[in-house]
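Can't paste images in this forum, so I'm doing it all in text. The chain is below; anyone willing to post the predicted structure tokens underneath?
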Amino acid sequence: MRNLLALVSKIHEKGNRFIVEQLKKNGADGLVPSHGDILICLYEQDKMTMKDIADKIHRTRPTVTVLVDKLEKLGYIKREISQEDSRYTYIVLTKKGQDFKPIFEKISEDLNNLLYKNLTEQESDTLENLLQKI
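Text version of the structure:
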């Protein structure tokens, strides 16, 4: 019996549990794994609209709004109205959000090390290639 979806779900669940533990350990209470998608976007680009974020992370705009609201409430991001066109509002990192980047990167690195620890380099490449095909 093939159980790919069950295995992927189990990996996802364990990965999320690891992230939540590490966030708490690093004083980032309130953040959840789904906030990471938005933070990655803003670490790559200084400012983005909600629509741009939603498109990039493949989530609906209402879902992104909820995530952005929480990140804003926690002080990691803020909204800025465009100086060129007041119809646009950009999401940008605050100092707290910028200062969190090294912690975020360390958690990501530790998670990857955990996920790949029992695989050779070739097995890791093969696994990723196979998953991409699916």
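The helical segments are 4-25, 33-44, 50-57, 61-73, 95-99, 101-116, 121-133. The chain has a mean pLDDT of 94.
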